[in-house]
Amino acid sequence: MSVRRFTIQGVIYPGDQQGYVGECLDLAVVTQGRTLDETAQNLREAIQLHLEGEDLGELGLAPNPPLLITFEMEPVSA
What is the CATH classification number for the domain harbouring 22? Predict the structure, then answer.
């Protein structure tokens, strides 16, 4: 019996020049946006499109897994 993940993990971090990059850590999905909200929505939509028509069990995912997003910030310097 295989272990199923119950969440999909993503991370959002500042882009090189402007805006933000959203990356799924569990699937080969990357997107971008001008704001945090736009990037989070784009990441959710990109993951939904990536999983469309796929058998989640074959990918090791439980049915209807939520997306857990972490935001990376630049280090704080004193």
Answer: 3.30.160
Check whether 2 has a pLDDT greater than 80. no
Q: Which one has a higher pLDDT value, 43 or 74?
A: 43
Query: Is 32 contained in some domain?
Result: yes
Range of the domain at 61: 8-71
Token look-up 């850590």 returns 25
3-state secondary structure the chain: CCCCECCEEEEEEECCCCCEEEEECCCCEEEEECCHHHHHHHHHHHHHHHHCCCCCCCCCECCCCCEEEEECCCCCCC
